[in-house]
Amino acid sequence: MAETINSIASALWPLLIFAALLLFRRPLLRIVRSAESREWTLEVGGQKLSMKQLSDQQNLVLADLQKQVDRLGKAIEDPAARAVETGEDLADAAARTGTPYSVLWVDDSPENNALIIEQLQNHGVRVDLARTTAEGLRLFGQRGYGAVLSNMNRTEDSTEVVDAGLRLMRAVRQSTSDIPFVIYCNATASSRYQADALAEGATAITASPTVVTEHLRALGLLD
């Protein structure tokens, strides 16, 4: 009897698997199509990213690293070309804020910074995110920070503000001249606003994720 039951069970397994495939064929097809188009979502640095977004960020970092390696060769010959010249001064400035292991990052697309945010969080750094200048200034007034990071072009109250990063920096500088302020934006904005940003007190303005992480290391926020 037991042998008969086992034989029947063995014969039924293929039918059960076939039935399951028929029953779940639509969800399975969606999973396969999602994988093919790399639409899986992962949480990185508290942000939900598609596989494509994550891949794009990783490719950007790798491409930028190659550029920085090329520049490093020039910097060895020309010290003035170094990306970060005042690491000790930056770390001192961060320490003077009283909360060196915290960062305010203002960007209306924080998912673009997910890899760097996760690095900071993995090093025990508190990262407060704000999507608007107003929200960023509210947080800045409520908490102390070791550094402020910002993009340049933001949508504020449904209006595009091309120099939002500069406006935020000016407001912060009215409160303190010590806190490191890094503007991380695209290459066009970096080139357009570089002179003004540095003249008005930005610690750095760059389109390079490598340069951003170099400054964060100089602040003692990353190893």
UniProtKB/TrEMBL annotation:
Keyword annotations: Membrane, Transmembrane, Transmembrane helix
Ranges that cross the membrane: 6-24
InterPro entries, A to Z: CheY-like_superfamily, Sig_transdc_resp-reg_receiver
Domain Response regulatory stretches: 102-223
Protein name: Response regulator
Lineage of the organism: Bacteria, Bacillati, Actinomycetota, Actinomycetes, Pseudonocardiales
